[in-house]
Specification:
By secondary structure, this protein is α+β, with helices and mostly antiparallel strands. It has 13 helices and 12 strands. Strand 8 and strand 9 form a beta hairpin.
């Protein structure tokens, strides 16, 4: 298992909000749905993406944006075009007065609410066919494991021309409007693949701020040890056992691991175990004892102590926040 495998091994896309957006100028929409991650593809035409705290970036056909929430941003035909609609959590689409849009084209605003699932094709916009077409996928990824990678992303990561080079985006454009049995599952898995492809592409770019541990996976000595930790966090790893697997002395191994990863071996192992524990508490009904065993702690008490020290809340509080109870 590598970093991307680990990212998607837990929470995957489920019932993802996917839309084809048809637009004719002037148009401008403010995205404030607080989605943890979203992909925006310019399938036709052009657009501008404008973060609240940065410069407008022009997008052309084939460009892809990875947007990391919850920071809001604007997508428009021109940065000067006033916002006409807002996408709120839910997702809920409202006009500038805060009134929810109807399914039919609104004569006053020129916009319609998105249709989703079997009520109709997943299409939205201010026209039935426009000079600009966007494909948008919202990825509800909130896990602690995911954040270890996605936190290295900028608020808006732009991949020029990536959509034109990948057949996955063509497939998304074809599948997004189909109404067939199991279509939601098809789209969820397709969004998983698109996310993997986009993240790989971004982290290979020279301007990307890549986590040191992600880069360390390419090291011939430390990389295999990292994958052992990711695959089997519950094993009774020690510096000595990890050094033996790397065929280095304890001192040489600890020094090389820390230089490449940015933290000592046991510190990395602890962080990974406690991130995995947080996701298990949020996304499963496993008991605290079962979670402790799965992530390498000998007892619920040992896990609770480490968890509160690392995350600042107890496992019970973390699970309660996620809407579950121990």
């Amino acid at each position: 298992m590598d970093a991307i495998d680990s990212l998607l091994d837990g929470p995957r896309a489920r019932g993802a909000f996917l839309l084809r957006v048809e637009l004719v100028p002037p148009w401008s929409m403010r995205i404030q749905d607080e989605a943890p991650l979203a992909l925006v593809v310019v399938a036709r035409g052009h657009a501008f993406v404008v973060p609240d705290d940065g410069q407008a970036r022009e997008l052309r056909q084939g460009d892809v944006v990875i947007a990391q929430g919850p920071a809001p941003y604007v997508v428009a035909d021109d940065p000067a075009t006033p916002v006409q609609v807002r996408i709120c959590p839910g997702p809920r689409c409202v006009d500038v007065r805060g009134e929810r849009l109807d399914a039919a084209l609104d004569r006053a605003t020129g916009w319609r609410a998105p249709s989703h699932g079997y009520v109709g094709v997943r299409t939205w916009g201010n026209t039935d066919g426009g000079s600009t077409q966007l494909l948008v996928g919202t990825y509800q990824m909130r896990g602690a494991v995911a954040r270890r990678l996605t936190s290295a992303l900028p608020t808006l990561a732009v991949l020029p021309g990536f959509g034109a080079r990948s057949s996955l985006f063509t497939l998304l454009g074809e599948e997004i409007t189909r109404d067939a049995p199991g279509q939601d599952v098809v789209l969820d898995r397709l969004l998983d693949l698109l996310l993997v492809a986009a993240l790989r592409a971004w982290f290979s770019r020279p301007e990307a701020m890549v986590p040191r541990w992600y880069l360390a996976e390419g090291d011939p000595v430390i990389g295999p040890v990292l994958r052992m930790i990711l695959d089997n966090p519950a094993d009774h790893w020690t510096v000595a056992s990890l050094a033996a697997a790397a065929r280095l002395s304890r001192a040489a191994f600890a020094r090389r691991f820390t230089e490449l990863v940015g933290e000592p071996p046991i510190a990395f192992l602890t962080g990974w175990r406690l991130a995995a524990a947080a996701d298990l508490l949020s996304d499963t009904d496993a008991t605290l004892d079962a979670v402790a065993r799965q992530v390498g702690y000998g007892s619920p008490f040992a896990l609770s102590t480490a968890f509160k020290r690392f995350h600042g809340v107890s496992p019970e509080e973390h699970r309660r926040t996620a809407g579950r109870s121990l």
